[in-house]
Amino acid sequence: MIVGPTAVGKTKLSIALAKAFNGEIINGDAMQFYRGLDIGTAKIKTEEKQGVKHHLIDILEPEDSFSVAHYQKLVREKIAEIKVQGKLPIVVGGSGLYLNAVLYDYQFLGNERLNDSEEKFAEFSTDQLAKILIEKSPKIAQKTDLSNRRRVIRALEKQESDLQESFSQYYDRALVIGLNLDRKTLYQRIDQRVDLMIKAGLIEEVKKLHTSKNKSQATQAIGYKELFQYLDGEITFEQAIDLVKRNSRRYAKRQLTWFRNKMEVSWFDVDLENFDLTVGQVIDKIKEEV
């Protein structure tokens, strides 16, 4: 499993490892499940795959709902299929809750309640909590101000939770590789990525979703919800872009906090001047584990 904040180089590393170890890649980014959300989610292009097989990309329409339980089941099935073929499954992404549900023995019971206070949800951003509420109860989510943290938590507390967290690993042999950059460089790369997304046509991509009035789970993603505000006339274009960059940086910080606190990760500092060196270090680590 390859984890880390947005814009750190997870995709590039995953291709290198798949080629080195006869692997196939399983998408671990919750928003890349959706068709039509390509630019804003930094979805890998066909030519970038270099012939490596990828799974669980473009499997849903933007209006479809999708839960952590669904993801857990699909990924574990894919892992089993790939292993049967004698290949290495490589799960890649930044959606911590989804990845944890695969790696650890999370149980989905349907009979627990989320009774705890704000402290229980401290590790979750408001966006992440909103996504969980949408997954569990789309009807209530439609009636809830998803930008209001207190209201989202109150709505979650009223719902029956189908998630029971476990700290025991589901797989006997699993290695989690984490990529990191110094904070200043990472934030610069995030800002640059947003600028490149705009040049690549992100506005046009968002307009298609906006025209269909598709205010779904998928369009709560960073890069989409801010531009929806712009298209609705609530903020200026410049304000929207600044918000996308700010929210992306904050998300990266939360990702790092999640992976450090919730998962056992072998961390590697990315060498941007010589990425092959980073790849080599990771390959050596994998060989040690084998």
Provide the domain count: 2
Largest sheet: 3 strands, parallel
Assembly classification: single chain
Principal-axis shape:
globular
SS field, number of helical segments? 11
The CATH homology group name of the largest domain = P-loop containing nucleotide triphosphate hydrolases
Euclidean distance between termini CA atoms: 15 Å
Helix content, binned percent = 40-55%
CATH class of the largest domain: Alpha Beta
CATH topology of the largest domain: Rossmann fold
Cα radius of gyration in angstroms: 19 Å
Outline the structure in words.
The protein is mostly helical. The chain folds into 2 domains: about 1-110 and about 170-290, Rossmann fold, CATH 3.40.50; about 110-160, no CATH class. Helices cover about 50% and strands about 10% of the residues. It has 11 helices and 8 strands. The chain has helices at about 10-20, 70-85, 95-105, 125-135, 140, 150-160, 185-200, 200-210, 225-230, 235-260, 275-290; strands at about 1-5, 25, 55, 90, 110-115, 160, 175-180, 265-270. Strands 1-7-8 form a 3-stranded parallel β-sheet, covered by helices on one side. Strands 3-2-4 form a 3-stranded parallel β-sheet, sandwiched between helices. A two-stranded antiparallel sheet has the order 5-6. The protein is globular and about 55 Å long.
